[in-house]
Each structure stands twice: as C-alpha cells, then as structure tokens.
Amino acid sequence: QVQLVESGGGLVQAGGSLRLSCAASGRTAGYGYYVRGWFRQAPGKEREGVAEIVPSTGNTEYTDAVKGRFTVSSDNAKNTVHLQINALKPEDTAVYYCAATVGTQTIVELHEREFDYWGQGTQVTVSS
C-alpha cells in the first residue's frame, strides 16, 4: 500500500504563503500512475477537496475557493507532491491532508470516497 506524510504547515499572517509537502512511499509509489489530492478540514466543518494532480501527466484540478492562490505540483523523482499556498486568508485555517488513489491516471472527483490512502494531516493557521 501507499504511505503518505504531510509537512509544511504552521502559523502565518493573512496574505502570507506556505508550501506544503506530501511524501509518498510504498510499493505503488513513484510510478506516477495514481492521483494525488489535497483536502482540508476546518473546525466544525466537513472535509473538502482543494486540489489534485495526476503526476504522470501533470493535469491538475482546483476547487473554486482556492483557484488562483493554490498551486499543486509533483516531483516524481522524489515521490513528493507540493501545495503552494499564496495570499492566505483566515478562512484557509484547517488541517490539510494529502490523499492518493491507485488505479487511474485521470482526474477524479475531489471527494473523500475517491481516495484510498490518507496522511495524518498538517495544521495551517492563518491569523488576521
């Protein structure tokens, strides 16, 4: 199976930037045939998808709430995906999770049910 570990979260003022990373390992990692997604969950809210990437093709998808501020990228040689977050807003405060689904190389719906493997999350806190 795939193991995922997020890093890069922290406390930042509104308007600042963060770069999150998600390192993958396991027998299916490193070949680029799985989709990698980013989700977030704010206190009292449902988990929502924010971005995804197909590492083998570079195709990406974003939710409207983050489009233009978030950029997802992949470093396939290092089995790692990144989420660059710019112009942070207080409403971006959440635990950010990396996810992966195996068996497809196409964009999937940004919903929890589409993903098989999850990291433990990294906290992003934005102060106003």
Report the span from N to C terminus. 40 Å
Q: Report strand %.
A: over 45%
CA-based gyration radius: 14 Å
- According to DSSP, the number of beta strands is 11
Helical content class? under 10%
The quaternary structure here is single chain
Major sheet: size, sense and barrel closure?
Answer: 7 strands, mixed
Q: Could you give the order of the helices and strands?
A: EEEEEEEEEEE
Outline = globular
pLDDT average, as an integer? 92
Which regions have little confidence, pLDDT < 50, spanning 5+ residues?
none
Compute the number of helices: 0
Structural class, please? mainly beta
What structural keywords apply?
128 residues, four-stranded antiparallel sheet, mainly beta, seven-stranded mixed sheet, 0% helix, 11 strands
Question: Quick recap of the structure?
Answer:
With 128 residues, the protein is mainly beta. Helices cover 0% and strands 52% of the residues. The protein is built from no helices and 11 strands.
What would you note in describing this structure?
The protein has 128 residues and is mostly beta strands. The chain is 0% helix and 52% strand.
Task: Describe the protein's topology.
Blueprint: E1 2-7, E2 10-13, E3 18-26, E4 34-41, E5 48-54, E6 59-62, E7 70-75, E8 80-85, E9 94-102, E10 117-118, E11 122-127
Parallel strand pairs: 2-11
Antiparallel strand pairs: 1-3, 3-8, 4-5, 4-9, 5-6, 7-8, 9-10, 9-11
